[in-house]
Amino acid sequence: MTPQDQSKAALDLAGRAPVIPVLVLNDVAHAAPLAEALVAGGLPALEVTLRTPAALDCIRAMAQVPGGIVGAGTLLTPEDVRAAKAAGATFGVSPGATDTLLQACIDEDLPLLPGAATATEAMILLEKGFTMQKFFPAEASGGAPALKGIGAPLPQITFCPTGGVSMKNKDSYLSLPNVICVGGSWVAPQDKMDAGDWAGIETLAREARA
Ligand code: 3PG
Q: Residue 177, SS3?
């Protein structure tokens, strides 16, 4: 899958909802009810970070939830790409980009949303054909003013800012012409998952979607 086709798929995915939940899951029992709550709240595209031992099993469980589009985040290596794909992930997200990782996504036909934090990083990805990128870590890299600045000379790149994005600041990003959606973990707080408060998470999703 070429970088151009990957970007097309990532753009389509990012257009489904203004927020992609970034999920750090420790308990596979949380996976299905969490996905159901987020989908019911209007957030169908879900990023499960490969940061916990339970992540791949969670992707497997969430891939069965109707209406959900499940991807794997924190992809760092070709092994991560292969494992994510085998578990049922239909897209990938990475904090940055290396040639090895980009090639693995081409080889495995996995649409990748690759991370960039500077104009140079964004240009390197653009040269390779990636017109849909993740701006990461968004707040620490200067937030919406920085992304607005990058957008002026590079309007052909569309971004999903992630990292430090919240209900409070999401609209500062979403109002930029080069932003289609944001990513964030705030819609799936650990305390609500531990309490099994799926209705509360559905409400957070609804608020994020609004
Ligand atoms: C992450 O790396 O965990 C994501 O970028 C989400 O960041 P957040 O927890 O600040 O939303």
A: coil
Quick one: pLDDT band at residue 182, thresholds 50, 70, 90? very high
User: β-pairing, 19-23 with 112-113?
Assistant: unpaired
Bridge-based pairing of strands 112-113 and 45-49 is unpaired
Q: What are phi and psi of 182, to 5 degrees?
A: -125, 160
Each residue's pLDDT tens digit, 9-22: 999 999 999 999 99
Is 118 strand, coil or helix? coil
128 is known as an active-site residue: no
CA of 40 relative to ligand 1 center, distance in Å: 22
Task: Check pocket membership of 41 for ligand 1, CB cut-off 6 A.
Answer: no
Is 60 in contact with 87 (CB distance < 8 Å)? yes
pLDDT, tens digit (0-9, with 9 covering 90-100), for 88-127 = 999 999 999 999 999 999 999 999 999 999 999 999 999 9
DSSP state for residue 164 in the 8-state scheme = S
Q: Which atom of ligand 1 is nearest to the CA of 138?
A: 5
Residue with tokens 């290596």: 77
Q: How deeply is 195 buried, as exposed, middle or buried, from its count of CB atoms within 10 A (0-12, 13-18, 19+)? A: exposed
Residue 138 Cβ contacting ligand 1 at under 6 Å: no
Domains of the chain (ranges plus CATH)? Answer: 3-209 (3.20.20.70)
- The answer to whether the pTM exceeds 0.85 is yes
Q: Which atom of ligand 1 is nearest to the CA of 74?
A: 2
- Structure tokens of 168? 């409070």
What is the CA 50 to chain-centroid distance, rounded?
A: 12
